[in-house]
Every structure is written in C-alpha cells, then in structure tokens.
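tool_call predict_complex ligand=flavin mononucleotide
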Amino acid sequence: MERIVVGITGASGSIYGKRTVEVLVANGYSVDLILSETGKKVFAYEIGVKVEDFVRELPQEQVNLYNPDDLFAPPSSGSYRTTGMVIVPCSAGTLGHIANGVTRNLIHRAADVTLKERRPLVLVFRETPLNRVHVENMLKAMDAGATVLPACPAFYGKPSSVKELVDFVVERALRLLTGKSFNLLQEWEGSQPLRPTS
Ligand SMILES: Cc1cc2nc3c(=O)[nH]c(=O)nc-3n(C[C@H](O)[C@H](O)[C@H](O)COP(=O)(O)O)c2cc1C
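tool_result ok
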C-alpha cells in the first residue's frame, strides 16, 4: 500500500482534511494522520466529531493516528518511505514553521523530512486576507520544494453543494501529490477546438 502523510492543523476547514483522509482510504492508500493540538480542537468544533471517533470508523489497517508531540513516530524519519505529505488545512503558523525549518511538532518534522527527501509536499493554506509574512513564507516554502495550494475552490463547475466545493480542493491537492486522478471533479472542457470545414 502506498503511504501518504496527512497533517491537519488548526486553520479553519477541517472538512478538507476529513475528506482527504476518506478519499485516500477509499482509493486504497495507507494514511499516517497527524493533527496539531489546535487542529484537534478545530476539527471537533467544525465537524462535531472528535478525530479519534472519526478514525475509529475507518479501516484500522489503513489509518495510523499519531500524537503531534510524538517525535519518535515513523513519519519523523526519512527512512520511513512515503509517497508524500499533504497538510490540509495548513495554518499560517504551521506554514511559518515549515518555511523556516523550525520543528516544534510531528507535522513540522514530517514536512521537513518530506522536503529533504525530495518528496511532494502540498500545503493547503487557509487564511485571508494575507499579510506580508504569509506571502514571504509561501515563497520560502515553494523555494524549498513545497506546493502551496490555497483552499480556494472554483465556481466554473457550477457547484451545488459544500461537498462539491470541498472535493474541488481535495482533488487538486491529491492530483499534485500522487499524479493520479480521483474523479472528484469534472475536467474543464471549455470551447471546442476549431475543425476545418469542407
Ligand atoms: C476556530 C478557529 C479557526 C481558525 N482559523 C484559522 C485559519 O483559517 N487560518 C490560520 O492560519 N489560523 C487559524 N486559526 C488559528 C490557529 O488555530 C492558530 O494560529 C494555531 O496556533 C495554529 O497552530 P497549528 O498550525 O499548530 O494548528 C483558527 C483558530 C480557531 C480557534
């Protein structure tokens, strides 16, 4: 089974993280899941379910939940092979730690490892409006190899539910991470190419 590390921080938008885990599990991936301390609180507040109860309903062999202060956990080491890592949603605080190489918890460490091992790291950043520090940290993280994907759904697909808005962001993040399609959104077809007329 391919392994993906999923970090969920205390930014608003826990629903993006929850859906990411569900889609990965449904597609046969193994998920190493880490919530920051504030991530756990915001998840419980926004979803109305504790993360432990959410994980209990998933196939146990596919999801490993770690404490954010457990720096002895496997994702702390580059020798633990993973396909990559997504932080969804990613707070301004966690972006700052990653961009500046400051490790205070397992999410920061796993992200640092992902970058040093040259594996894909996708940061689904959620904050608005932006200050200069956010923008500078995004540039630093991008220069180090991360992809910054703002939690910013599009409307050209004419979404009719929150789920469709969430799926747009989740599909884009997972495609960048794995190079595969998860069929959560319809591809844009736009106008048809010109054909020669006889
Ligand atoms: C309900 C709630 C919503 C929040 N939303 C955001 C947000 O969208 N973006 C952000 O950067 N911080 C947000 N915060 C603040 C972060 O949770 C806080 O900065 C925290 O220290 C981030 O730490 P973490 O990245 O380790 O989770 C929110 C806090 C709360 C309580």
